[in-house]
Each structure stands twice: as structure tokens, then as C-alpha cells.
Amino acid sequence: MVSRMDFSGDDSSQVSVDTFVDIVVVGSGAGALTSAIYAADQGMSVLVVEKSDKYGGTSAISGGGIWIPNNDHFRKKGGNDSFEKAMTYLNAATAGKVAASRLKAYLDNAPEMVRYLEENTRVRYAVAEKYPDYYPDLPGALAGGRTLDPELYDTSELGEELKNLRAASPTTLLMGKIAWTARDAHKVIAKESGWRLLILWLMLRYKLDFRWRKKSGFRRDRRTALGNSLIASLRRSLMDRDVPLWLNTEFQDFIIDNGRVVGVKVFSNGNTRTVHARKGVIMASGGFEQNQALRDQYLPQPTKVEWSATPAGQNTGAALTAGQSIGAATDLLDWAWWSPTMRVPKEDKARGLFAERAFPGAIIVNGEGKRFVNEAEPYLECGHAMYRDNEKTGGKSIPAWVIFDSHFRFNYAMGPLMPGQIMPDSRLPSLWNKTLYWKAESLEGLAAEIGVDEDGLKETVDRVNQFASTGDDKDFQRGGNIFDRYYGDQNVTPNPCLAPVKKGPFYAMRIEAGDIGTKGGLLTNENAQVVREDGSVIEGLYAIGNASASVMGTSYPGAGSTIGPAMTFGFIAVKSLVKQPAAVTVNRPVEAEEMA
Ligand code: FAD
Q1: The predicted structure's pLDDT at residue 2
Q2: pLDDT over 60 at 481, yes or no
Q3: Tens of pLDDT along 390-426?
């Protein structure tokens, strides 16, 4: 059976064995959906194939923030940014590890990509004016304005398609169920004036919407925020354009003709199908963090799939292995978007510790009871420090331990432990005791419980307590810059990131060297085209997001440095694809026998 563009709706079981489109997009994260929308708007026929039974990938459970230097939102609010300033900063952050042409392509296209989406689709962003760049001491850094945060999106617009949306992680929702923007969450975390009222308002809004939940049968907040809002609004915009998205459809390999990628083989509903792509293929199938064998092969040891905060079993390196088999160059394979993570019993993926490391009164120590990092550092640096110290100490920093006292416990969250004033120990699941958290009346007792050196821990705590009184962390300069202080408690002086650890009982929580995705992948040029070692282009093949080697090199310049580039290079890929001649072989009818 042969068909050209023979598909309708979202049900891949309706289609013929062979399908003909201009562009096939593999994966359904934010970059994938952005490119599919833009391609459809350029008059091209597009098909999105997604391996899982849910669309959205890690992007759907993420913060959805995008790092877009020189964006219109900031400018309209009087902000002062420029291409040159951003390039100065990116050059310093990436330290010569990324081709200048790719950095330029990113900075040129990122603001345009956002403008395009906001003018033509249902995607809406607002600027997180107070969110500083992650390396505020580098030249060209800004104290805020480059990170955009998705506005809330009303998912009732998705109709039945809402049930296929990968659900937001409860960690990103207020009380595990109420949608809130990153700007609102920050207001509450930093205890800015009005934070209590804000919580009341969000709760009230949620409660008052009980009718929709009852009528629709969806037991989730109708509004969605962060990455879930981004994916929902992109998905709805795809529906507006009748672009098909096949779920449960797994990319398996490329179809090659004369060295050019002219389509993909996919496995769907028990059948192998062939999708011919006249213009080309965009691989947006994520990294390889969910593949233990590839982790063992490329990432520093120790490393475990279970430490990743990404959806279990999805991103297994399909683009990487298929790309390598046709001669694609790769880069950064020994890097992930590191983040310290925690395993919570009964949860299928780890939870990233993004903000709470900076709260005053929690410290991170290794098995010797010693600090080895500025706890408030960006998560990439914090995770990387775990590896460096683990090597130095002969394996004593993975796992590491977060230590805090009862004052901290009462006032602040740590991972799934909500502040004791809301969730006292008596209300914590008993299963968490000694699997997620350890507790003892004295520091000595705690050290014995978790197998950390007792003297080392006591010495460290004494030293931190001195730093807390002066506000000066002489060892790691915690709270020493505007980024550290973003998640500090503004009511704590002299340093919002430092407080003593002195009032028992004391607590410990185990942290792993986790990730929010891998950073390395297929090497691409400024058009998002995959290249070989000699720099020549593999015609017809594009890679974006974590399927490609990050344009940020080994750095994490600001919140949104993974999704911002994924969407931008998705946009760039389409600009390039529009100009490509159609592959000759896929324009002639192909008999099913020929394809066998
Ligand atoms: P994904 O979004 O994971 O999409 C890949 C898709 O490809 C998946 O749906 C997968 O099922 C599919 N797929 C895989 N293999 C195949 C195959 N063989 N065939 C078909 N489909 C396949 N980054 C930011 O920039 N900003 C943030 O605010 C942010 N917050 C985060 C918060 C959390 C809790 C986490 C875990 C991550 C966060 N990140 C953030 C990181 C970011 O979410 C990811 O780096 C990004 O979403 C990766 O995008 P992607 O398109 O490469 O992959």
C-alpha cells in the first residue's frame, strides 16, 4: 500500500505503510513542536512522530523557561540588552568551545522565534525581570531580563487532546496541584511582600474552578503553567494547523539515498512504517539520559538512569546512535545538564534540587562531612562539583548529603519535604524515614546514621555557623553574587543564603549526581544541520534540543538555556529546510514491495 500525504487526525493506525511529507519531526518536546508549527506556516507538509503515548517529553514537565537575550518583552519594559552584550557574555561562558557561527545564529534568531510564536500561535511569555544570568560576574551578564517564563494556559482549549499531554510534575505545582508561574513561585520562595495573599488567591482560583474539573472529568488544574503551558499551547497551535502528531510511534532508523537522509523508519502499532521526507528530517528526540549503556559509555562514573529527573524510559539516545551509524560527528558526550537530584520512594523519576540549596541553613557535605561547593551555585555547576570532589576524595561525594536543622525544617522546603509549619514530621509518610530523610537529636547521631565522618561534620557546621554570623562564606562565597541571592531568603541578614545549623533535631537528605537531560549529541552547524567530522553537511538531517550537542558548550548561561536553543534551532532548521530542493527519490511512487 502506498500513499502520499495519506494521514488524517492523530491516529497513526489510520495510515498506509508508506507516508510522504516534506518534513518529519522526531519527538514532541518544545523544539519539535515549534519547528512543526513554523514548517506548516511555510506551506510544508509536516508529520510529528512521538515514541511515547504522551506528547511533550521533558519539556512538558520542565519550568518551560527560555533564555532569550535581547528579547522584546524586556525591551518593552525599559530593559537594556543588546546582541553585542549577549555575545560578550556567551563568548565568556562558552569559553571557545562552541563555533562562533552557532552562537551568532542563536542570538540572531532567538528573539525573532519568540516574536513569531507570540504573533502567530497561542504561545505567550512574560519576562522574569528579576531572574539573573547564571554567571553574573562574567562580562555582558545581566541582573535579569533574559529569561522568559510561560504565561498560564487554559488547557480546556485542548479538548480531548488534554488527556495525551504529559502531565506537569507535581513538584512544579503549588501543593502538588495548583498551577503557578515561575514569577509567582519566586515571590513565594523569596517571601516577597504579599506572598501569603498570593497563595490564598491561587488556592481560591483553583477551588472556584471545581465545576470545570467535575464536568470535564480531568482532575487537574484547568490552567497550566511552566513547561506544561508551553507544550499545551504549542500543541493547540499545531491542531489549529491540522498538523498530525502520531503517538506511540518510535523512530528506528534513517532512510538514505545517495548519502542524503530522505526519511525515517518508524515502529508504530506493531508495524514498521516508512515516512518519506522530501525536504528532510528534524531529530528532536532528546538526549540519552534514559539509556544506562550509553551513560556508562560516555558519562563520568558513577552514573545511573534513576538519578535523572527526565521522564522514565523515553530519551534513550535514538538520534545519537542512528546519527553515528551514518557518520555524524558528535560533541560534549561526557556532559549532562547536571543537577543534584533526590530519589523519592515510589516516584518514577528523580527530583531536581534547583532552588532550595540556596535557602539559608542547609549545607551540602561529602562522606568526610566536608563542604565542597557553594550550595547556591547553578545546578549544572553544583552537579559537576559532585563529580570533581568525588574524584578528589576517592568516591566520597556521590552520594552527598544535605544537612539542616529544625529551624530550617520548620521554615523552608527541601525536595518533597514542605516546611514543617505546613507539613510537620508527624505527617510525613513513614516510608520516607531513612529512605528519603534521616533525623537525629545531635549532629553526632546524624553522622552515625548516614555514615558520614562525625568530626568532619561538626567542624564544618562550626565553621558555617561563624560564616552565618558575619555573612561571609570564606570557603565558597555562598551568597556572594546576585544569582546566589535570587533564591535566598531576603529576610535573613547579613547574607540571605547563610544561617546557622544549630538547633536539633538535625536532618540529612541524600543527593545524587543527577541530570535534567544530557548535553552532548550530534554536532550541528549554524543551520541546525548535522555535520560529519570533516565539517561537511549530512544532507537532509537536522538535530535540535538534546539530540544535538548544546550550543551552550559546557556552560548554563541562564534559566532556559536548554529549551530556548531547542526552540530557536527548531525555527532555524525550518528556515534552512524551506530552501532545500526536494529529494528526487521520494517524488516518484514507491511500491510497497520495493520498500520491504
Ligand atoms: P524532550 O522535551 O525530552 O523531548 C524528546 C521527545 O522525544 C520525548 O517526548 C521522547 O519521548 C521522544 N523520543 C525519544 N526517542 C524517540 C524515538 N526513538 N522516536 C520518537 N520519539 C522519541 N530547561 C530549560 O531550558 N528551562 C527550564 O525551565 C527547564 N526546567 C526544567 C525542569 C525540570 C524538572 C526538568 C527535568 C528539566 C528542565 N529543563 C529546563 C530541561 C529541559 O526540560 C530539557 O533539556 C528539554 O526539555 C529537552 O528538550 P528536547 O526537545 O531535547 O527533549
Answers
A1: 34
A2: yes
A3: 999 999 999 999 999 999 999 999 999 999 998 999 9
Ligand 1 centroid distance, CA of 57 (Å): 5
Residue-wise DSSP of 279-323: EEEEE----STT-HHHHHHHSPSS--GGGB-SPTTT---HHHHHH
Q: Which atom of ligand 1 is nearest to the CA of 31?
A: 51
Q: Which three-class secondary structure state does DSSP give residue 230?
A: helix
Find out whether the beta carbon of 552 lies less than 6 Å from any atom of ligand 1. no
Q: What are the b/e assignments for 126-163, b being 16+ CB within 10 Å?
A: ebbbbbbbbbbebebbbebbbbbbbbbbebebbeebbe
Q: Do strands 271-283 and 537-543 pair parallel, antiparallel, or not at all (unpaired)?
A: parallel
Residue nearest atom 8 of ligand 1, based on CA coordinates: 57
For residues 293 and 286, give the distance between their C-alpha atoms in angstroms, rounded to a whole number.
16
pLDDT at 176: 84
Predicted local distance difference test score (pLDDT) of residue 171? 79
Closest residue to atom 18 of ligand 1, CA basis: 251
Amino acid (1-letter code) at residue 293: A
Q: What is the best residue among 33, 49, 58 to mutate for testing ligand 1's pocket, by most ligand atoms within 8 Å of CB?
A: 58
Ligand 1 pocket residue status of 310, Cβ below 6 Å: yes
Q: Is the CB of 28 under 6 A from ligand 1?
A: yes
Is the pLDDT at 329 greater than 50? The verdict is yes
E strand residue ranges, 112-168: 125-127, 147-150, 153-154
